[in-house]
Amino acid sequence: MTPQQKQQMREGLKKTREVLGHDIPGVSDQVIEDALWNYYFDVPQTVNYILIKYPRPQQKKQSKAKGLLGFGFQASSPWPAMSAVEMGYFADAPWGNIPQDRKGELVLKGPQLRGGLLGGSSSGPKSSKLAALAKKRKEKAQAATPTFGEEKTSISLLSRLSKQTSSAKNVLEPVSPAPRPSAQSPSSLPSGSPLRPPPPQTSTARETPAPLDSPQTDPKARTTVDLVGLDQPKTQEPVVLVAETATQQKALGASPSSFAQSIFGERITLRHEITVTNTTLFFVPGNKEAGKANPFAGPSPDDVVAAAQSASKGLNKGTHQKTPAPTIQKTEEVLKNLSLEAAPAAKKVEKIDVLKAYSESSAKENINFVVVGHVDAGKSTLMGRMLYDCGAVDERAMRKYRQESEQIGKGSFALAWVMDQTEEERNRGVTIDIATNHFETPNSSFTILDAPGHRDFIPNMIAGASQADFAVLVIDASTGAFEAGFHRQGQTKEHTLLCRSIGVQRLVVAVNKLDTVDWSPARFEEIVQQMQQFLTNAGFSMKNVTFVPMSGLTGINVVRKPDDNVIPWYNGPSLLEVLETSNKHTRAVDKPLRLVISEVFRGGVTNPVSISGRIDAGYLQEGDVLVSIPSKEQAIAKAIVCNDEPAKWAVAGHNAVIHLSGIDPIHLRPGDVLCNPTSPLITIKSFNVKLLAFEGMTPMAVDVHKGRLHAAGKVSVLLQTMDKSNGQVIKKKPRHIPPGSLARVTVELIGEAIPVEAGNRIVLRSSGVTVAAGIIE
Amino acid sequence: MKLIRKNLEKDGEGSITMCPEEDEDMWHAYNLIRPHDILRASALRKVSTTSSTGSVASQRVQLTLTITVDKIDFDAAGGALHISGRVLDENKYVPIGAHHTLDLELHRNFTLSKTLWDSVALETVRAACAPGENADIAAIVLHEGLACICAVTEHTTIERQRIEMSVPKKRSPEAHERGMERFYKAITEAFLRLFEIDKLKAVLLGSPGFYAAGLRDYIFSFAEKTENKPLLRARPKFIVEHTSSGHKHALTEALTSPAVKAKLADTRYAKEMEAVDAFFRMIHTDEFRAWYGAKEVAKAVEKGAVGTLLLSDSLFRSQSVAERRKFVAMKEEVERQGGEVLILSSIHESGVRLGNIGGIAAILTFPLEDLDEDEELELEEPKLEEDGGGQN
After folding, report:
1. Fewer beta carbons under 10 A from the terminal one: N or C of chain B?
2. Nearest CB to A422: which of B176, B372, B386?
């Protein structure tokens, strides 16, 4: 907590106390502080919450876990802060006879809506060293088992209990033999938690902690954790560490306390056995290879998830008996694998056939889309809304954005702040650079590239569009605004043309802010008409263009379908549904590696040099030697991170983060290309381009854009103009190229050569205007 | 430049003695001195003497040498001019025909003799020796991660330093801000090292978005921190302008802005810029009144159609005497016809734009078609163009 926050906390506590008085049992300062923290120091909300949670009469205190919210959206530390036992929640409850009101309800939802900001929260409190250590261990464990998160669902219920892992996907906490509802502390859940809070609580799972597990499931589940954790300070980190360590080192072997023995007797032993096999299955200390010995031998992760889901659902109905079977089978399988291909314990990374792995992988397809449109069309707000509604942004962060944006008088920008993270962008209320965020739906995993709309930052927009598979064009439907974006200098047109010339085929037109014109069907129709005409001329095929009426600020028809009478004239899909129906993209995976660096940064203490970028072609895996062009310096891909998760390999179409070693960051610049040393790119100073001229051209100075690459050059020779329809040469050596014509020119770079090759799409700009776009020959 | 002595015959032969006073004068000298001219200037030559015993002693001797010019080499960034040639007059240290490279120095006279001082050369002398106010402008154009620091004078735009730095993007807002700060700091330090603030007439900052304003704020907070009085006093000299990028050619956009024009001592630069702009506009709007390329313009001159002739001074530095004469004749012809002739500095931004199309262009007073039609019509194309431009 910063001093400022501490101050806010003190004030908030004082005010809350004033309102509440001291007569409510169980409402300690700690509880109020936690609530304040959750509600971002909003006193009325806190009071409201506490009054709901702690009705003044009889009920003793409800436990309330300290939030893990500070971890931002990572949802990577799923351990509950304190157990129910620790909190004394069940202190007065008789064993085996839990009062009805203490029982939670656990509802299982699909393993979906996992997401997070690639950029991370701007204000998450620093995690302690212990937490960092625990996280690292966890990552290590994950690295050893690439499909850790998903396969975990197949772990037997009992062993899962002992592990107490609830991954971001939130595997169901199993319950005791009697089919009773149970619940889990929501603080450990990511925002898209499958938990539905108990009835008396308010809408979202995020802000309303549900009661903790009921005691009968609990002791069994938490023996290892709590026995050690009890004497720890009440922060979540030590607990995490202990639990992790225990799991990893098979410390489960520690003999149960006499109390536990007497209560559970043999059941503890049973648990113990299964845990051991399970540990072998997913984590073999000192032998990283074992985990991935044959990662695709078992059922596909999706199948496993599905199986686990059905099993868990069945369990809720009380038919939990069959669950152990697949686990045993699985264990046997892995044991077999282990004996067959026990890999050496060496740290050397084993080469895998990435192409094979890719074609066999049934992971969700990663789809990148760029959001473009005129300045102030609401691109960032729309994307903020989408992330928020998909649960990739948690309630507390959102509350913070709201409050802070209101403080500087820009309340309507709160959603945009999800994307616009820098101070400059927030103060000015415009996006300056591409924001890369990531979220998932049950079917697909999306990377959002939120482009700036302001004309000064079109180079950044080009960078974003060149990383995308398709584009979402946001149009401001409010009166006059559509026309402003659509006139000659408006970015609606320029962005669309740029997207098309960069190679984007599919376009989703989001007709935004329709609420400002009362959802007028006439206005929607008018925009659709005009856009269709323009898009056809721009070379889009109408079957690849979808129009969606919506409102980003209110969120109508973005993720949520509108209420019945809001848009009576529209019964098509919502924006998210449209995004999900995108067709399979073909990737140039079998070509030589081309990874265009979009940014160079310091990935942390252990990763001083990291880059992020899109893989245009080819693939790479951990341990590969790469060469950076044009600096021709070699580096080793130490680790790969795709969509916030460590990966063994990445292929074309991925927007990946690569941690490098053996290279100085001065040799890496945005726009440089990482290649395989055996087939490097050759930099060139002069090349011919077949282009479409948007403006009249003569031999002139131009800026050459290709993705992040932004180089100064000049059009030195006009070679020929061509007929648009059949490509016939109209005129050789023309004196100038009229706007709208197809031509072939020679471009020379001023300064150093740039890493481009035949087939690359480039954009030529001059004096802030896009002059032409074309393909290098 | 100071004109010391002018000694010209009626037929244009003769010599002129001048004294360069500032860096820009080297540029003028570069435009005046041609191969085969005779140049007399002071020189420092290493002379080896062999004594009777055979021991060799070498010493540096200050001499005044006369050479016939073979090669001229101009280093724009350093402001140095190297002229190599053969020695013409003998003295006790140097025999006739020995090679020597003269480095022209500031505040040391040199005498240049030509067999023909043409009108272009004489105009260059006049322009160079005109007692003009020193209109030095420092210009910094930047975008995120790239900055060009340029010195702009009346006749030259010289890129003094280019700063490239990779600034972390939005991934982590703090790192981004730190990166920008580092970037601004590097620019500020380079700027203070390269320029004497008091001598500058204006400091022009240009960028897309808010970077220029951000840089100005940084510079003054830096000045306050370091209590840099001259810099603080110079506050009114700073002009923030919008440009489309941080590349050097974007400087054109900033230099044409009214605020900058007002600061410039004479309007020559602005006029050149306008003429080039007009030409490029016209080539799209009124194709047959705007022509570029030596052959096409020559035809237009023949027909008396040229209203404004734009020439790059690089044409007059041609190695071939005949070539140079041709352009001089063209220029004189247009002036005789009452047209306007602008000779643009090839290292000024407008001159660079003209250089892109071959260094010669004309705006006609009436449209002429088919100037590009040549005898060679054998190909299927009705119009085969002889570009002439572009291959510069």
Report:
1. C
2. B176
Instruction: State whether B159 and B236 are in the same domain.
Output: yes
- In B, residues 339-368, which contact A (CB 8 Å cutoff)? 352-353, 356-358
Question: What's the whole-number mean pLDDT along residues B330-350?
Answer: 88
Please indicate if any CB of chain B lies within 8 Å of the CB of A403: no
Domain end, chosen from B230, B263, B296, is at: B263
Topology match between the domains A366-580 and A594-675: no
What does the pLDDT read at residue A342? Answer: 40
Verify that B153 and B42 share a domain, yes or no: no
Q: Which of A191-200, A298-307, A460-469, A634-643 has the lowest mean pLDDT?
A: A191-200
CB contact under 8 A, A700 and B253: no
Per CATH, domain A686-776 is 2.40.30.10: yes
Other C-beta atoms lying within 10 Å of the C-beta of residue A197:
22
Strand-pair partners of B363: B290, B308
What CATH number has the domain bearing residue B198? 3.30.420.60
| Facing A456 at nearest CB: one of B209, B214, B383 | B209
pLDDT digits (tens, 9 = 90+) for B35-57: 889 999 988 888 888 888 888 88
pLDDT at A18: 81
Residue B16 located in a structural domain: yes
Reported as a single tens digit per residue, the pLDDT across A92-115 is 666 666 667 666 666 665 555 555
| Contacting residues of B for A712, CB less than 8 Å apart | 245, 247-249
Tell me, yes or no, whether B108 and B95 share the same domain.
yes
**Min Cα–Cα distance to chain B from A450, Å:** 11
Chain A environment of B353 (Cβ under 8 Å): 700-701
Interior angle at CA B274, CA B271 and CA B278, nearest 5: 140
Residue B382 lies in a domain: no
Residue B12 lies in a domain: yes
Q: Does domain A366-580 have CATH number 3.40.50.300?
A: yes
From A211, A195, A199, select the one nearest A107 (Cα to Cα).
Answer: A195
Interface membership of A716 toward B (CB under 8 Å): yes
Domain A594-675 class, CATH top level:
mainly beta
DSSP state of A551: B
pLDDT tens sequence across B240-294: 989 988 888 888 888 877 777 777 655 677 788 888 888 988 888 888 888 888 8
Q: Which residue among B210, B247, B253 places its CB closest to the CB of A424?
A: B210
What's the domain count of chain B? 3
**Treating both helix axes as pointing N-terminal to C-terminal, what angle do A43-53 and A3-20 enclose, rounded to 10 degrees?**
50
> What angle separates helix A43-53 from helix A29-38, to the nearest 10 degrees?
120
Each domain of chain A, given as residue ranges in start order, spans: 109-184+218-340, 366-580, 594-675, 686-776
Q: Closest by alpha carbon to B189, among B237, B167, B222?
A: B222
Identify whether residues B224 and B313 lie together within a single domain: no
Q: How far apart are the first and last CA of chain A?
A: 57
Instruction: Tell me the two tokens of residue B88.
Output: 């013409």
Q: Which pLDDT does position A56 carry in this prediction?
A: 66
Q: In this structure, are B246 and B168 located in the same domain?
A: yes
pLDDT tens-digit readout, B111-161: 999 988 888 888 888 888 876 556 678 899 999 889 999 988 877 888 888
- Give the residue numbers spanning the domain of B219: 137-263
> Are B238 and B274 members of one domain?
no
Q: What does residue B361 show for φ and ψ, rounded to 5 degrees?
A: -155, 155
Residues B124 and B172 in one domain: no
CATH number at residue B301: 3.30.1330.30
B/e letters for B110-145, b = 16+ CB within 10 Å, e = fewer, are bbbbbeebbebbeebbebbbeeeeebbbbbbbbbbb
Question: Between A103 and A27, where is the model more confident?
Answer: A27
Q: Is the pLDDT of residue A562 over 50?
A: yes
Residue B251 sits in the same domain as residue B156: yes
Greatest C-alpha distance within chain B: 80
**Among B181, B211, B245, the residue to mutate for chain A (most A Cβ within 10 A):** B245
What is the reported pLDDT for B296?
A: 87
What is the structure's pLDDT at A248? 47
Identify the band that residue B93 occupies on the pLDDT scale cut at 50, 70 and 90.
Answer: confident
